[in-house]
Amino acid sequence: MPASSYSQAASMLLRHVRPTSNAMCRGLGCTVQSRAFGIKTTLRVQEHISKLIKKDKSKNKNKADEMQVTGPGPFHDTILESMPSELRVPRNPPPMREDTMDHTWNTSDLEALDVGPTKHRVPDLISDKIALWAVKSARKPTDIFFRNKYIHRSVMLEVVAAVPGMVGGLIRHIKSLQGMRHDGGWIGHLLHEAENERMHLMTWMEISKPVLWERALIATVQTGFFAVFSLLYMVSPRTAHRVVGYLEEEAVTSYTHFIGEIDAGRIENVKAPEIAVAYWNLDPESTLRDVVLAVRADEALHRDTNHHFSDRIRAKRESLFEDMDTDGNKPHIKY
Fold it and tell me: What is the pLDDT of residue 184?
């Protein structure tokens, strides 16, 4: 207890004892002995409080000396101690291609991938034509705003491209729960696509370092696209996947131009960031051009996958299980 608290208690007690004893003496005609008794009581109270103050000071001093000698006690991180073992295992996002981790990829390997840079799905339905028109219309302001700033263009592209897979996976997940039936194997692929696009974004963020106003613009565009695409997917999943297929066609085209700018020397071919080297299992000496080649290959897969999803919905063959490659050693689980 602080010494000031004892002093305050003593002062309050003395203010109470003295007037009370004096009043009683005046009213009852106290003798000199009675007055002396009151004074003695007051002095004893003061003496007792002084001893308490000294004892408290001594105790605090001993505690401080002990802390200096032994140091503070061991720090217990309760959050770390209560962490489940499942969370201690790193869950690195898997790359899109199954063979990515089979060997270290160099420039020759990446250039040998068949991405079909000019591949285009010709629309035959009115909804497909509307989807293509919407994507082409959205590209025009992007071309005007970013021009040849391909790194910043890539950031904007990946912020948008990371939305469809998550939206599609979420909506199909909810429908699977509501219908109490399996989804046909789509959810895992859609979430994998979303995570892959997010890794693209994380890679470009390491290189571009966007400023505050650019981040605000990105957040605004993403929020608007998320709302519109969510509504579209609930109304017409087939059209939504067709939109993504055409969006990925434009992404492949943009990354092809990006490579051309690097080859022409207009964009510096800097060293690849560590996150890209680890994610795509690239050669440690890889450069920005290698990263663009790897990202373009992923976008080509998303292009083909989403066009195929749209075709399956149209053909009323949504379940992938009948057409999946099976391993005889593993049970075929419908999820």
Answer: 87
